[in-house]
Each structure stands twice: as C-alpha cells, then as structure tokens.
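Team,

Forwarding the record for the chain on the shared tracking sheet. I've put the sequence and predicted structure together so nobody has to dig through attachments.
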Amino acid sequence: MPTVAIVLSAVMFIILLFLFNSETAPEPVTIDPAITAAAAKEWPVLGKSIFENGVAAVGASACAGCHGLGGQGGVGPKLAGDQNLLQNAVLAHTRVVKGKGAMPAYEGKLKDNEIYAVSNYVINAWGNKATPPLITPAVIAAAASTISPEVLKNRSRLVPEEIKLPEITLVTFILLCLTYGLIGLYSVWAEGEQLHPGIHKTRSTPVAMLAMVSTLIGVMFFGVLFARQILVDLAGWSADPIVKPDVTAEGFYAAMVVILLGVAAGLYKKYFMDSEVVIEDSSGEFPW
C-alpha cells in the first residue's frame, strides 16, 4: 500500500507540474506603427516617469521602489549593468509584461506604449547599452518567431523554476497523505477490518480479460495521442505566427499512459498471477 500511494501521488504531482509549466512560448505580436513610433521617442521622459513614480491611476507601483532610482537594486534585482538585460533586451519587455516571482505583471495595467517606454528606459539608463538598443513591436515579433534560450530552458525543466523546494515538499506531502488515506478507506470498505494472511489465487474471468485488453488499448491510444501532440507542438514552433505548445494536453496524455499501465499491472496481479499477500479477508478474496 505505501508503494501504491507513492506511485499515485507521483503521477498526480506530474500532472500538476504540466499544468504549472504551461507557458512555453511568447504570444504572437501585432506590429503597430503608432506604437513603434512612440517606442522610439517616449522612453526618455515617459519611461523614466513610470520607473520612478509608477502610474497610480491603474495601480502600477514605481519600479524604483524595488530596483532603486539608479537601478542599483534593493528588494528587486539590480538593473544597471545587468548582463542578462544587456545581451537580451527583449527580456526587459517580457518581465514588465509577464512579471516573475515577486515582480507583478503589468500587462493589462500599463498601456502598450507605456510598457515599451519603461522597458526601453531600463535598457538605456544608467549607462546600459543593450542589444538591440531599442525594443519595438518588430523586435518583439522577431523574438517570438524564434525559440529563445529562456523558453527552451523552461520547457526542458520538469519543475518550472518558479516552483521552489518548500512548495514541492508541501504539495508532495499533501498528495501522499490524501492518496494513502483514500487507499486506506477503500481497503476497509473492500476487505473489512478482520484481515488474515493467505495466498491470492488467480481468478481470471472473461470480464477480467476484457478489462485487460481495454486497458492496453487505452495505453496505445493515449500513447499515439501523446506522440501526435508532440509532433503538432514541434511544428508550431516553425509556424508563422508561432502556435503555442499545448503542454497541458501533453501532460494529460502522458499521465493517462502511466495510469493505464498501472491499472494493467494491477489487473494482471489480481486476475492472472498467483502471489502471496500480507493481508487477505476471511472470504479468501484479496481485492488488490
């Protein structure tokens, strides 16, 4: 029972991780000439104003409160001389739009021209000289048409970098306790409280054979869907515009393959294999 609980908890946790790790590609970008023109001229004044004062009317706090007026860092990371920003200026725009960790996302709070203004201010202020030197919709669109190292890194991780060890430990413990408890309740319901040692004998029936065949067909079915989804997502990377991978579907199909394989193993052990058991109820039947 402990082994079963651990395996089921691991399966459920993997499903959760796929759900958390759903953002693996940037959104397609529409190139607006007006925004492009604004991005080139507004950042020295508007960008500085937003960085130092925020936009109180929409609840956007000042960037300087965390990063410092001179970009020297504080609660937030240092921006002056940050090599990640200097070598990949698009990262500044992504952080403002999507946020990360303790930094909030400003998408929906700031207007597009304000986002470009403050992003360009960050990569050009305090002596920063970024590549490219100006972020425009065209630059963002070009970045969206390629797989960035950051996207590849995040996609290659089983656990997204936003999820830390305390969260992993807590969720794993909760899932383990819930799974163990559910299995325990099932055991009491199916076996009763009076348990005896014994030998489990095979009880193969037509229904058991049908269940085994159906389960194996299900494994093949979801395996094919998983492989097909992977191919579709890979093709989406080269599409124009980019089609975001459906990581949730990938995770669901993979989890179904694992779960059905577990069901097949359970059916085989119960109906097609003699084995010793630690506990067996007085009727001579051992459910699982």
